[in-house]
Fold this protein.
Amino acid sequence: MEFRVAIIGLGYVGLPLAVESGKKYQTIGFDINLKRISELQNGKDRTLEVSEKELSEVKKLSYSTDSNDLLNCNFYIVTVPTPIDEHKNPDLTPILKASELLSTVLKKGDIVVYESTVYPGCTEEVCVPILEKSGLKYNEDFFCGYSPERINPGDKVHRLPSILKVTSGSTPEIANVVDDFYSSLVTAGTFKASSIKVAEAAKVIENSQRDINIAFVNELSLIFNKLGIDTNEVLEAAGTKWNFLKFSPGLVGGHCIGVDPYYLTYKAESVGYHPQVILAGRRINDNMGAYVAKELIKLLNKKAVLNQQTKVLILGITFKENCPDIRNSRVIDIYTELIDFGLSVDVMDTEADPQEVLEEYGIELTNNPNFADYRGVVLAVAHKKFMDIDWFQTRKKVEVIFDVKGLLPKDLSDSRL
């Protein structure tokens, strides 16, 4: 097959894929965000996943917001976000709209591959009927595949070509075609799943497993805090055993670990099974931000510096270190809880886009704060630039330092997870 590729959605997942595809095949990167397309056409990637140099060197990649430009393509890959709504149910709106769009350009023999996280069965039960609005029949006129994304935002070591890729197709022949495409891009190799549903399930359990393991150590942190034991010291000791799994306590947000388990539990409940372990882990992890805020309040109160004029500085608002991604950041839970207690709270972040933070959370980021103005500091995200702070001097200026990530020497913080 002569691949003429269209990538639908140019975020953290879609752009790196479009770049790799554009090195080999004629590729169109499609997005409905005019500003995003304009920036990419000018060689700028605000997600920082692809460098200006790499963008400039891709010769077969173009960008568009016009669906007519997709008509000549024959291999479509959907990489739009799949978040959860306020009730923690899957929000399929972006993937439904992407499928609607493709139904208007689909032709006989075309293949549509989904990379967006979905629950097992979603591609064929939800997306395919929308694609069939094209008037074409599934597995006769057009075909589908599923290849779960494994992009790790901010990670410059584990990138698309070096991460083994799971692939699948709606027929054995199409599974081979899909696998051939990804094999040509991914040097780490591919794993061909037996069906689309198996590939979909593999995606959601990858991150559900991590979520449960982090929930376990978060619960340990809650227990050990009551026992007056340092969790990090316990984990360090236990980690000397050869088969001990090394996970650290912390906030669990982002577009994968904090979201994917809800896709699995949603599908499980739809078939009459109420998940126990997965949802228990989610409850623990979802409450860690509020826990940090309440512990900080207790420490401020013990030092007799808690009143309506008390100011707190939170360092970091992104969902992970050294990355501008603010989607589903659980740092906001710390912020909201402290605001609810009546405190004055500022947020500083060296990586996040101030305008995005303002639009998403209504927070104006603080630049170059004077630490002497604050009674409490929460080190919430492990950005490298935060380690350039003179923490010995900060310790002298601030009554309470809460080290969420356990980055500082123990004697420089009052508490940590």
Observations:
- The longest strand covers residues 4-8.
